[in-house]
Amino acid sequence: ATTPENWAADPENSLWARGPSFTLPAEMLRDNALHASGLLVPKVGGPSVRPYQPPGLWSDKGSAKYSASKGEGLYRRSLYTYWKRTSPPPSMVILDSAKRDVCVVKRERTSSPLQACVMMNDPQFVEASRMLAQRLIQQHQDNTQAIIVDMFRLLTSRHPTDKEIAVLNKLVKEQANYFQEDPQRAEMFLKNGDAPRDAKIPAVRLAAIGMLANTLMNFDECVMRR
After folding, report:
1. pLDDT of residue 140
2. Spatial separation of the C-alpha atoms in residues 86 and 74, rounded to whole Å
3. Which has the closest alpha carbon to 23: 95, 129, 113, 117?
4. Average pLDDT in the 96-117 region?
5. What percent of the chain has pLDDT over 90?
6. Residues 155 and 219: beta-carbon distance below 8 Å
7. Is the dihedral of CA 57, 67, 91, 26 positive or negative?
8. What DSSP line would sit under 35-84, residue for residue?
9. Which of 59, 153, 204, 225 sits a CA distance of 20 to 30 A from 2?
10. Residue 98: its pLDDT value, please?
11. Which distant-in-sequence residues (6+ apart) come within 8 Å of 60 by Cβ?
12. Confidence at residue 19, expressed as pLDDT on a 0 to 100 scale
């Protein structure tokens, strides 16, 4: 799909103004979330690292148990993730990364509820959501609309429409009410990941804005290549 203006200006598509749409590769989805949150470590080179993985990985007899890295090792680019061919990172495989136990010419591209489950619940993505929220609250304080606009721009590369701002404002209020009813829910949400939390920001507000970030990170325009 393209506009008549783009078609007239570039009928041969030599400027790549149009092309197929598909979900970003697993590595790009993870790295994009870390970059937007400010957690991504840009260091080049060095040994492989071990980001968060589900409990019980590598627990077979004769195999060392999986132990996640600490510090910057959790936030290196996906290129540096340690890969065990007989037990690859589950979240990456669910997001269509090749398993590497056999050679593949082209990766499969799928769309499944399990992928959405990973994006919304994996500690790496939830932590990135709360840290993006923390960064924007520190920057804009109580100006929720500025937070929404800035967050939307960071994650989609465009400014939100008035209708989108209204919907996202409603989401923030609903989440704030949800966490206000039971502050323990907010504390549970904010415990995801090792990144330090700003204790000066009220837990309910940080969790509500964090859920806004988590929602936008799963928005079609954030996870699709167009």
Report:
1. 96
2. 22
3. 95
4. 89
5. 76
6. yes
7. negative
8. HHHT--B-----S-B-----TTTT-STTSPPP----GGGGGB-GGGB---
9. 153
10. 87
11. none
12. 85
**C-alpha 113 chain-centroid distance:** 16
For 219, the token pair is: 């928005």
Q: CA triplet 198, 207, 90: central angle to 5 degrees?
A: 100
Element (H, E) at 224: strand 224-225
Distance separating alpha carbons of residues 100 and 104, to the nearest angstrom = 8
Q: Which has the closest alpha carbon to 72: 90, 89, 51?
A: 51
Spatial separation of the C-alpha atoms in residues 222 and 225, rounded to whole Å: 8
* CA gap 32, 126 in Å, rounded: 13
- Token readout for 199 is 């204790």
Question: How far, in Å, CA of 120 to CA of 218, rounded?
Answer: 7
Decide: 53 and 47 in contact? Cβ < 8 Å: no
Name the token pair of 225: 């290549």
Cβ atoms within 10 Å, residue 176: 19
CA angle 5, 9, 12 (to 5 degrees): 120
Give the SS3 label for residue 99: coil
d(CA 198, CA 180): 19
Question: What is the number of alpha carbons within 13 Å of residue 17 lying toward its C-beta?
Answer: 15
As a whole number of Å, the CA-based R_g of the chain is 19
Distance between CA atoms of 221 and 226, rounded to whole angstroms? 8
pLDDT tens for 32-47 read 999 999 999 999 999 9
Alpha carbons within 13 A on the beta-carbon side of 92: 25
